[in-house]
Design goal:
- Helices cover about 30% and strands about 25% of the residues.
- It has twelve helices and 18 strands.
- Strands 1, 2, 9, 10, 11, 12 and 18 form a seven-stranded mixed beta sheet that branches.
- It is globular and about 65 Å long.
Length: about 450
């Protein structure tokens, strides 16, 4: 039994407890269930997906945060491994760049085509990117920002704008806040979202598919429930206090995985169970990013792109995504559904919400003819406890904790130079591999 508010019911035993049904939590739970662990996922919201879920507004399927899912990388590999349906459709052309009054397709020409269109110094920039691709010594140190690195080659506002908006689109920070080393590593050595798509049910569709594999293998997902505390005995997590349906439930487990971020995980465990140096690292690196998303719809097709349109010269607008060219099911018949995103200044720390929303709307009026006649569905300001990324890329904590059977997953413990739901899939794989490896070690050897 566990003391707490409300009635108390008998404790429940699971092999693994996952705190949070966001992307990282569900990737982890699906892998654990596939490996034979009876897994419980506890989610405080009434739906799965967390900051990458979907809300229906008058028949429109509006994504709450993450809008695209990578195709062909670790995300799709995870779905295949656990036997989950992967209903993601790829746009005919994933990304176009707005340069002047033209939408530029760089599918074949790549960096060279884009940069040579923007600036006479394009060849120098391409050379710098090429060097970073081939030689670790060509990568700048962590102290140099992406904006400053670009400034070594070009002073063009359009060039700086493209790099800022690429940083914002992937990492939810401006180029002045993202280390150049992170940017160059991602775009030269990682998957860099070369292929991605949309789910016709909204992004929640992919998470519901993963959740179904958990329950099909004897696991459970408790929505509208909350882990109040993780209890540590002899240096290991042994039990959790969970509130569910107004009752307090004691859940025992062999392994605990948290998808609520390292800072919140410390709060669940209690600072007294963690060494000071670890708590200090969490305090230093608890730097959530921020992003704004304006969802709008129109009867007329306002954005002549099948996927995402990135901009070169704007005050704040990073991109506009067109969902209904690829997934008409996301809107009522006869409607087009879009989202526009911006990153505030600063993206880390405090900013004026009203002013940033006004700048985003002004950009849309300037760059999307007909926007004033569109129907605005919602404006989401993602920050603080509901950020687009829990940590600035390049400054993440490890997914391990000082407690050997407690792990973090998600975008607060990303691998170097990764981001978004792809990073969540990667951390889940690494954590589950280590959990399985630890389980194979005899108890007397631990």
């Amino acid at each position: 039994m566990v003391d707490g508010g409300g009635a108390t019911v008998p404790g429940t035993q699971f092999d693994a407890l996952v705190v949070g049904a966001g992307a990282g939590g569900l990737f982890t739970a699906a892998r654990l269930a596939h490996a034979g662990y009876r897994t419980l996922v506890v989610e405080r919201l009434d739906k799965v997906g967390g900051r990458a879920s979907t809300t229906e507004i008058d028949g429109f399927r509006v994504n709450d945060g993450a809008i695209v899912i990578e195709v062909g990388g670790i995300t799709e590999e995870t779905f295949a491994e656990v036997g989950a349906q992967f209903d993601v459709r790829t746009p005919a052309v994933p990304v176009l760049y707005r340069v002047g009054n033209k939408n530029l397709d760089v599918t074949r020409g790549g960096w060279g085509m884009l940069l040579s269109t923007l600036t006479r110094q394009g060849a120098k920039l391409v050379s710098g990117i090429g060097a970073a691709r081939k030689d670790d010594d060509a990568l700048p140190g962590e102290e140099l920002s992406t904006a400053d690195w670009v400034g070594r080659y070009s002073r063009s506002a359009a060039v700086q704008g493209v790099f800022r908006n690429m940083c914002a689109s992937v990492f939810a920070v401006g180029s002045e806040e993202l280390p150049a080393r992170v940017f160059l590593t991602y775009f030269t050595r990682k998957s860099a979202f070369k292929r991605f798509g949309f789910c016709p049910d909204g992004t929640i569709g992919v998470w519901e598919s993963l959740a179904a594999t958990v329950t099909a293998r004897g696991g459970e997902i408790w929505l509208s429930s909350q882990v109040e505390a993780l209890h540590v005995t002899d240096g290991r997590v042994t039990e959790a206090t969970v509130t569910r349906d107004g009752e307090t439930v004691g859940v025992t487990c062999d392994v605990a995985v948290s998808d609520v971020g390292p800072a919140a995980t410390v709060g669940l465990v209690g600072a007294e169970h963690l060494p000071e140096d670890y708590r200090e690292q969490v305090r230093i690196k608890d730097r959530p990013c921020s992003m704004l998303a304006l969802n709008f719809a129109s009867r007329e097709r306002l954005v002549d792109v099948p996927g995402m349109l990135l901009f070169s010269v704007t005050e704040r607008l990073c991109y506009v995504a067109n969902f209904t060219d690829t997934c008409p099911e996301m809107a009522p018949p006869g409607w087009n559904l879009y989202v526009a995103a911006s990153v505030p200044k600063p993206a880390v720390g405090d900013f004026d919400e009203a002013a940033e929303i006004a700048l985003l709307r002004a950009d849309l009026r300037a760059h999307i003819p007909g926007f004033d006649g569109a129907r605005e569905l919602s404006v989401a300001v993602m920050r603080d406890g509901w950020p687009p990324q829990r940590a600035v890329a390049g400054h993440d904590l490890p997914h391990t904790t000082p407690i050997p059977n407690l792990w973090n997953v998600g975008d607060g413990v990303k691998e170097y130079a990764n981001g978004g739901t792809t990073a969540c899939a990667e951390t889940a794989k690494l954590v589950v591999e280590q959990i399985l490896a630890d389980a194979r070690v005899p108890a007397e050897a631990k």
